[in-house]
From TrEMBL:
Keywords: Activator, Nucleus, Transcription, Transcription regulation. One of its GO terms (biological process) is regulation of transcription by RNA polymerase II. This is Mediator of RNA polymerase II transcription subunit 20. Its main location: nucleus. It is found in: Nucleus. Signal peptide: none annotated. The keyword Nucleus applies. The gene is Med20. It comes from Chordeiles acutipennis. It comes from the Eukaryota.
Length: 209
């Protein structure tokens, strides 16, 4: 699977750009297969913990994906990905002495799933709070679980509707080589995409100051 950000078309809104992409998919012959949602909440190390143990603060991302309704993913940046039961969120409430929820940082991608032959495509609007911040496109080649075996085919298909915005090889692929691709690899890609969009939103604010 590849998860990538698509820039908003010049002179268009996020929603209009999403419609342009989905129209291209439908013209190819892709059919709607329901909806999807990936969300991410940020937790930071509690101040009391940092002080007592002399550690630097760490961020942990707790994520959900509608493709895996019974699972919850907890990721550290540049670190491991824990796959837990859906009730992991309840455990995080009990761990508030160690990890605190940065509530204003919740981000999610929500949109439509499309099936085209052996490909599954999800075009989502990325939102933080009430406003749309960007566009995500996830493309999966369903028959294959070895990333290197199907990347060229995946890229060729993405070019058919993403054009110049077709992404390069995701960073998670570089560590997989010939090993089996897992759901955790998809969540790492979403985490990187969400962080990239968060940083893009922070730049103009810094410029105004």
């Amino acid at each position: 699977r590849s998860v990538a950000q698509v820039p908003v078309a010049e002179g268009k809104s996020v929603q209009q750009t999403v419609e342009i992409l989905t129209r291209k998919l439908e013209l190819l012959g892709a059919e709607k297969q329901g909806t999807f949602c990936v969300d991410c909440e940020t937790y930071h190390t509690a101040a009391s913990t940092i002080g007592s143990q002399g550690q630097t603060g760490k961020l942990m991302y707790v994520m959900h994906n509608s493709e895996y309704p019974l699972s919850c993913f907890a990721l550290f940046e540049n670190g491991p990905c824990l796959i837990a039961d859906a009730n992991f969120d309840i455990l995080m409430v009990k761990l508030k002495g160690f990890f605190q929820n940065a509530k204003a940082n919740k981000i999610e991608s929500r949109g439509t799933r499309y099936q085209y032959c052996d490909f599954l495509v999800k075009v989502g609007t990325v939102t933080m709070g009430p406003s749309a911040r960007g566009i995500s496109v996830e493309v999966e080649y369903c028959p294959c679980v070895i990333a290197n075996d199907c990347w060229n085919l995946l890229m060729e298909f993405m070019q058919s509707f993403m054009g110049n915005h077709t992404p390069g090889i995701p960073s998670v692929f570089s560590t997989k080589h010939d090993s089996v691709y897992s759901p955790a690899d998809t969540m790492v890609q979403y985490m990187e995409l969400f962080n990239k969009i968060r940083k893009q939103q922070q730049v103009p604010v810094a410029g105004i100051r």
